[in-house]
């Protein structure tokens, strides 16, 4: 399923009307009818409803909803927060039909009192055509609904008052229980703060022909199995550990061995054949006491228990055996870190996942990433993203989508911006957003698990475009499945233990 910007949605709309000859009125009828259906399914008995309609096409959908609810016996009043003269031809037509049917259409002044007395409010004030901070009287009508409505609130397409593309609240926005959106989800449904206003989300078909979408697909998709399920084929009975790839994880400095251990175990549970954990010399013993299955490789140490910036003497000989690298879990900071990391990135041409301190080491100068031979995946949380780009965490969080797309486009990398509704941006401009979040993953060690999963899937040879969304999906599913008692008490290692069930559920 796609995720659209306002412009992408307008383009689909336009092409359906202009190229396919399907009248805009049909799309509006379909939209309004589906939204009304969602209400009728939820409330089988007739209700008293106030429909707040603007003069744009979102308001037009509102008039269609009014007609269908009235036909189903509901007590309907439309409050027109706008002017008849400003209506588009489609909106004006459906407004006219409501008048002919005798459905009361009132101005905003005088109908405010109603909002506190109805069972249902339909918000058809503003949709994807909203521009800039809200003007009056729309703004106060929204505030009125939020303050006095005791009933159920349905938002048509998007909650009025949120910006479709950034998810910003333009002064005031409707707090909805349900949003029914048309043809595809919109970015604001998955970006904060707007995402907190939409309530439950339902995407309905309004008849935009698949050929129109195929000719000019939106850049972003929701993370769903269709993106990667063909890469989860059963393990061949003829395979051996060498068939399934070999991941090298570099990290695990003194006091941070847990991080590298978690990544290593997560990679093996994600199906990689072998994982080697490269840690500073002296840490091999303590690490061996923690993990059994991964191989352990001591790297030259400098300050006790930390990397030295030098390479092992057998590096060249062994490097070619790895099918992917993950660098960063428990890596820490050390003298000579930047040339060390840059040399690694230059010398290996297999996929590399960079996380945690590997990201911090690169902060401020990411130019090395442009020189890479193979794919690079960055997995920053908002704090790391802010450091990478030299901006504030607030700036990252207020434009998660844009910063991820920018970073990937500028440096030719795949960015996984973690957090609620993880954003994945590919170097070619494609984007995937994960539509769910697992609160259990908000815990130390969770990022190390994701790094291991991604490294493992890449080492298995799954292409980046599939491996990254698949990894994010498995991480979230395992996080959800790990909640056997309470999300509060789930550990990163519990998430690893549930990776098998997560894979099984998909297959
Ligand atoms: N997706 C589709 O194919 C279809 C979508 N439909 C619906 O149409 C709206 C988009 O309609 P549009 O006419 O472009 O814009 P809006 O109704 O969202 O808004 C225009 C309306 O709002 C006024 N306005 C704009 N900004 C502000 C502001 N800051 N403050 C106050 N008022 C503002 C402006 O003056 C106009 O009057 C989409 O969301 C769907 O609901 C079609 O029905 C079917 C096809
Ligand atoms: K709306």
From TrEMBL:
PROSITE patterns (UniProt xref): YJEF_C_2, YJEF_C_3, YJEF_N
Residues engaged in binding (6S)-NADPHX: 57-61, 127-133, 157, 259, 330, 381, 448
Top-level taxon in the UniProt lineage: Bacteria
Residue ranges occupied by any YjeF N-terminal domain in the UniProt entry: 9-214
InterPro entries, per the entry: Carbohydrate_kinase_pred_CS, CARKD, Nnr, Ribokinase-like, YjeF_N_dom, YjeF_N_dom_sf
PANTHER family cross-referenced by the UniProt entry: ATP-DEPENDENT (S)-NAD(P)H-HYDRATE DEHYDRATASE, ATP-DEPENDENT (S)-NAD(P)H-HYDRATE DEHYDRATASE FAMILY MEMBER
Record protein name field: Bifunctional NAD(P)H-hydrate repair enzyme
Organism: Kroppenstedtia guangzhouensis
């Amino acid at each position: 399923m796609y995720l659209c910007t306002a412009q992408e949605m307008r383009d689909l709309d336009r092409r359906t009307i202009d190229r396919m000859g399907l009248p805009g009125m049909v799309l509006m009828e379909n939209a309004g009818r589906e939204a009304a259906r969602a209400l009728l399914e939820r409330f089988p008995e007739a209700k008293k409803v106030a429909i707040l309609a603007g003069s744009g096409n979102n308001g037009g959908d509102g008039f269609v909803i009014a007609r269908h609810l009235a036909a189903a016996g509901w007590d309907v009043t439309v409050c027109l927060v706008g002017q008849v003269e400003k209506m588009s031809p489609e909106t004006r037509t459906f407004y006219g039909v409501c008048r002919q049917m005798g459905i009361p259409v009132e101005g905003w002044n005088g109908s405010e009192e109603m909002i506190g007395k109805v069972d249902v409010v339909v918000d058809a004030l503003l949709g994807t055509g909203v521009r800039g901070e809200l003007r009056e009287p729309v703004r106060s009508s929204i505030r009125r609904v939020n303050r006095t409505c005791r009933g159920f609130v349905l938002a048509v397409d998007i909650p009025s008052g949120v910006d479709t593309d950034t998810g910003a609240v333009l002064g005031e926005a409707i707090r909805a229980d349900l949003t029914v959106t048309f043809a595809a989800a919109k970015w604001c449904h998955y970006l904060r703060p707007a995402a907190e206003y939409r309530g439950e989300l339902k995407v309905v078909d309004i008849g935009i022909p698949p050929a129109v979408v195929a000719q000019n697909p939106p850049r972003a998709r929701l993370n769903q199995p269709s993106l990667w399920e063909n890469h989860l084929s059963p393990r061949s009975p003829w395979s051996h550990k060498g068939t399934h790839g070999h991941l090298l994880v570099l990290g695990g400095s003194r006091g941070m061995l847990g991080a590298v251990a978690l990544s290593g175990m997560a990679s093996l549970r994600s199906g990689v054949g072998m994982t080697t954990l490269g840690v500073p010399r002296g840490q091999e013993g303590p690490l061996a006491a923690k993990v059994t299955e991964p191989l352990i490789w001591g790297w030259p140490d400098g300050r006790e228990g930390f990397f030295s910036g030098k390479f092992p003497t057998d590096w060249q000989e062994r490097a070619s055996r790895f099918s992917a690298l993950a660098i960063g879990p428990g890596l820490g900071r050390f003298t000579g870190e930047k040339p060390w990391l840059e040399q690694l990135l230059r010398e290996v041409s297999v996929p590399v996942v960079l996380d945690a301190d590997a990201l911090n080491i690169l902060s401020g100068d990411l130019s090395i990433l442009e020189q890479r031979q193979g794919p690079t995946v960055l997995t920053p949380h908002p704090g790391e993203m802010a450091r990478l780009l030299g901006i504030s965490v607030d700036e990252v969080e207020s434009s998660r989508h844009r910063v991820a797309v920018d970073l990937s486009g500028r440096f030719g990398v795949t960015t996984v911006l973690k957090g609620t509704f993880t954003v994945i941006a590919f170097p070619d401009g494609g984007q995937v957003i994960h539509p769910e979040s697992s609160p259990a993953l908000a815990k130390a060690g969770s990022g190390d698990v994701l790094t291991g999963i991604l490294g493992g899937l890449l080492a298995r040879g799954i292409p980046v475009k599939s491996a990254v969304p698949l990894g994010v999906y498995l991480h979230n599913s395992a996080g959800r499945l790990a909640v056997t008692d309470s999300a509060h008490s789930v550990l990163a290692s519990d998430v690893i233990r549930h990776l098998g069930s997560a894979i099984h559920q998909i297959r």
